[in-house]
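Standup, Tuesday
Yesterday: got the pipeline producing structure tokens again.
Today: sanity-check two examples.
Blockers: none.

Example 1:
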Amino acid sequence: MKWTNDRSGNVDDRRGAGGGGGMLVGGGLGTLIIAAIIFFLGGDPSAILSSGMSNSGAQTEQRNLTPNEIKVREFVQMITAENEQTWAKIFRENGMQYRPAKVVMFEAVTQSGCGTAQAAMGPFYCPADQTVYMDMSFFKELEQRFGAKVTEFSIAYVMAHEMGHHVQTLLGTTQKVDQLRRSGKYSEKEMNRVSVATELQADFYAGLWAKQTDNREKFLEPGDIESAISAAEAVGDDNIQKRSQGYVNQEGFTHGSSAQRKEWFMKGYNTGDIRQGDTFNALLK
């Protein structure tokens, strides 16, 4: 992908800062749940940030960022800026005002509005502080453990997916899903289907972002969309279940199959129309 000249001031780089890290102590169910969702691309992680986990008090030493880490920060600032511009335009065209999300880059561990964030959770969006949290080591694991082809644009896709969750929060979708979950009226199977619809809509928004941003910036190059699809398919529920437990249980899906993730990302990209992204009616009939 081609780099643009846009940079966002809403990126907080906590890598190398020192003092914010430390080992987490805890275990039991909380640890098992976190292990089960490793490398999923998810939304609100508060349900799996176990209150039984605490910071041991160990501190990380301050260090200078490497030239490559500084370049990665610049890349994240660029992608954040492109999300801000594209979504501001889409909201404006639909008579709404867009409020930008913040992005926090960290390593190992940091604090979020949803609790303690760990690298093992993968990138996530926290509705409580409307912030995307990213430990860049996730992408090495995405390639090594799940077979994705990691490129600059696959990283951009992951960020766009998390920004999609921010869009859901601004539109009230996140709050409605949370109300359903808290009501206790629906079974785990039913709520899993709602979760799948939520995640696939974020994939749709990522595809929509790619299309609209390319219309404005012409930043896509050959192979970029394919690399995003590779990342989306790698974190499909069926692929992760096969690799982790050797079989597929569709009732346990929470993010959608590899085929579904590709389908909805491409629907967003091919239509470029936010009105085509109603995954809830499509999946919950």
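Example 2:
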Amino acid sequence: MKRVLVVSNGHGEDAIALRLSRELRAREMAPELFPLVGLGPDAGAAAPLVGPRAALPSGGIVAFGNVVNIVRDLRAGLAPLFTAQVRFLRRTGARYAAALAVGDAFCCMMARLSGVPVFFVGTAKSVRVAPYGGFEANLLRGAAGVYVRDEPTARSLAGRGVPASAPGNVMMDMLEGAPPPGLAAPWLTILPGSREAAYEDARFLTRVARRLGAERALPVLISIADSVDPNRVAALLKSEGWCVGAREGYAFEACADGVCLLGWSGRVGSLLRPAALGGGGAILALGQAGTANEQAAGAGVPVVAFEPGGAHRTGWYRMRQQRLLGEALDVVEKDEERALQELRRLLDDEPRRARMGAVGRERMGAPGGAAAIAEAVARALAGAQ
């Protein structure tokens, strides 16, 4: 088996890397995962984790001159971690037949230090948000294959001499798995994210969902990422007045004011799969996440995110997501009363929800990318023999 080093730089990217690894393994390649950000996912049998890793305060959010996060990460050991990662890539590249970089151009640049052919899966950029810059395009010209998230971005790069394609969105391949057991649709889905901020975001989102669920007799599912401690979430809910206990198939069950809230630590794609198949499921997603928000939109679930200043004062991260998803994402002021007003309006407006779902599916694209990318890598490596 030929070894392939799969380099990723973000929590969402880790999940995409895992899905790609399954396809690589199905084609008799041996993927090994090297997460540049955080400790990496629970890969199980999909692929071993390799390389130096550490959990830093920013969770990888250091782009666009985020000086505060950069300083915090530097104090927590970013510089020696980066040096160790560079050393690992330069010294161990000979182990691998190729590298697959999942993330942004920085991830591609790091993967190229291995000295082996690099295939790039661009998850972070789109011409709908911001096109790849001149330096990035020049970097990508040296890649063995470039796979981006949508056709307009592929055409833009192709016009600049980068042989890019958009074979399908790997995020949509991740809408798989058995749905939550013993739960009748529709339900509200909470997506608090995968970073440290997820706990406080969960506090706000569950307060809103508790009131909305009581009004509309809707159960609530909260998705708990691998990097989030379900016991800590359960303790937070207890402090908010929820009665928390056990329920088979879930991390916990919480009850308050006639509302049932279930903690789901399985794949977020399982929560979204019923909606993607057109069979109901989540009626709304209250989301502060990155990849999970985008997956929800791609499944046709209207997504509502919350920012302190509302839609007109978003930070760069939410602004990027808003541009990417368009009307599929509704950004509301992070205030409990205003949030409830907007969510009530949205639940009462079925045509708007349908429109948001259609836009989300169009913006995120079709599945099939994971298999197509893995097949391209397999063909290239077979031809290199």
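Quick observation on example 2: The chain has two domains: 2-174+367-383, 187-364. The first helix runs from residue 11 to 26.
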